[in-house]
Write a structure and sequence with these properties.
mainly alpha
């Protein structure tokens, strides 16, 4: 009894006439297709990972930049408060100096020292 067909390969029957060479060729073709598909999925996955990393870096940079901006804003606010405090202290010293000068002029006037006035 002669067998007309061999076992199916990739859901296709292999006729005896096709022989080993035909089966090997089909196997190699199918293997290349499977390997190429797997390689394509691997590349797509790597691209997605790179994209996510870049998004993460961009978000990190944006967050870092916002933190830098906030620190700069706080530094500017602290500088303005320091300048305002210094201005008020200078104004207080001037007012105290003017009061002291006026008090000295008043005392000099009581003592009859006229050369001490403005």
């Amino acid at each position: 009894m002669q067998i007309e067909e061999r076992s199916p390969f990739c859901e296709e029957s292999v006729k005896e006439a096709e022989g080993v060479e035909a089966v090997c060729e089909q196997y190699l073709t199918e293997r290349k297709r499977i390997v190429n598909a797997a390689e394509g999925r691997r590349r797509a996955h790597e691209v997605e990972i790179r994209r996510l990393r870049m998004e993460g870096l961009a978000e990190g940079r944006a967050q870092g930049q916002s933190e830098i901006d906030e620190l700069r804003r706080q530094g500017e606010e602290a500088r303005k408060q320091r300048e305002e405090t210094e201005r008020k202290a200078d104004q207080g010293r001037r007012t105290a100096d003017e009061r002291q000068w006026e008090e000295m002029k008043r005392k000099a006037g009581k003592l009859g020292l006229h050369g001490c006035s403005d």
